[in-house]
Amino acid sequence: MYPTKYHKPDSLEAASAAMAAAEDGKILAGGHTLLPTMKQHLAAPSDVVDIRGIAALHGISERGGALTIGATTTHAEVANSAVVAAACPALCCLAAGIGDPAVRHVGTIGGSLANNDPAADYPAAVLALNAMVITNRRDIPAEDFFDGMFTTTLEDGEIIKAIRFPASECGSYSKFPNPASRYAMVGVYVARVDGRVRVAVTGAGEDGVFRHDGMEAALSAEFAPDALDSVEISDDGLLSDLHGTAEYRAHLIRVIAKRSVATC
User: Fold this and answer.
1) How far apart are CA 115 and CA 152, in angstroms?
2) Short-list 73, 254, 98, CA closest to 165
3) Alpha-carbon distance 218 to 213, whole Å?
4) Is residue 222 part of a domain?
5) CB–CB of 233/250 below 8 Å?
6) Same domain as 176, residue 128
7) Which residues of the chain have pLDDT under 70?
8) Which helix (H) or strand (E) holds 102?
9) What is the pLDDT, as a whole number, of residue 60?
10) Domain range spanning residue 232?
């Protein structure tokens, strides 16, 4: 690795100050992307700011049906939370299907969202549920947060504090996982929020997570798996790689979406 300064702040203010003073600072939460890229010399930050010890960024709470999850809360904690199970059980199922136990006990929801891997699971839930990403500077609606593959609208030095999920009438997430990485080749989160159907697709798009207008319209008219049979699902803009062609992923979107609707 290249030389780097390691910081372990105990407050959000100290973390913000460390980032502001760094020439090229990076936030460390779970580290599943940052550390491997540093080992491969694909990233060489001047400073690494480890936020895992900041109590204010950790924990799960529910109020009035809305669910708030701190940025450094691990996937395993979300998966095993009674609070999440009562307010949004689909999130428990989603978190339980991320990676393997080692990944789930270290990886964090905030780190996943900040990284915005095109095959990550959490972005589908955040977009489908119309969640709010709360940072040290502002509240960012899900619709305004994701900005392309591995890209978000987070500004330099901006740190995710928590994610707030509104109360939903129902929600369900299903995915077709890559057997090696457990990342989604296609994942679909279907939700009904404030009387509206929202469908978010991860793992398939060249630009990352996206909503599917055609499926939302069909399910708004008839909320049933068969309602998706006549929906046109184009392979334009879908990923094509050694794991599956764009045409194959388009097929999977319908199959996985129908599974999600059936269990919503």
Assistant:
1) 8
2) 73
3) 9
4) yes
5) yes
6) no
7) 1
8) helix 101-104
9) 98
10) 170-262
